[in-house]
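hey so i finally got around to running the thing on that chain from the lab meeting. sorry it took forever, my laptop kept dying and i had to restart like 3 times. anyway pasting the input first so we r on the same page abt which one it is
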Amino acid sequence: MDLKLSGKVAIVTGASRGIGRAIAQTLAAEGVKIVAVARSEDQLDDVAKSIKTECLVQAVDLRTPESAAAVVDATVAKFGAIDLVVNNAGATKRGDFFELTDADWDDGFALKFFGAMRLSRAAWKHLQAARGSIVNIIGIGGRTGSADFAIGGSVNAACRLLTKALADRGVKDGVRVNAINPGSIKTERLDIRLKDFAEEHGIDLAKAEQQMAKASGVSRFGEPSEIAAAVAFLASPRCGFCHGALLDIDGGQTRTL
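ok and heres what got predicted. didnt touch it at all, straight out
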């Protein structure tokens, strides 16, 4: 299916690895010009080499207030437009609620929430001109509370509300805003959790993956490419009536309404 994205310009944050890398590669395969944003320039350069379309590397820390506007300015200077923003950057610390510090909480919100908010705000007028869209990568932790994921769940819940608020404004301004809530996806972060689980229980990684998936109530963990494919569809004109949607891609892990 032709998603009619060829020639479009997309900013993808957290593009150096995992889900963000897969998103950049999938969009590029559809002919999208990519602005790859993350803190690691070496990893971003590797991403740029892996795709066939033009790729502008932006090695910045989106936790700093001025970074979002700088990325937008660089994008417009290079490509002249912005059609899509994918807010994917952001990892939050797990742990016991009473052991998490104020600094942990500040850091959790700084990148995933405030980084997404600032980038959306900075890019909005360009998205409005292009009648473009935003796709926020959030997570199912914002729907169901978990004792060891207090920061991540709170940040995700805030990002869900931000998505709805921006979608409400987007009706007026012609900017579509949607979000994806991934479940457990096979990224480096999940690999670390699997290794820890395997060591704790004295089993191999394959057995650890099987047991962790079963404990989560799913048959398997997801692949980054599955999230990336959904981003491409949500951003495309083929999905033009989808607005303000919060799409769970979690293998059925979330069972609540």
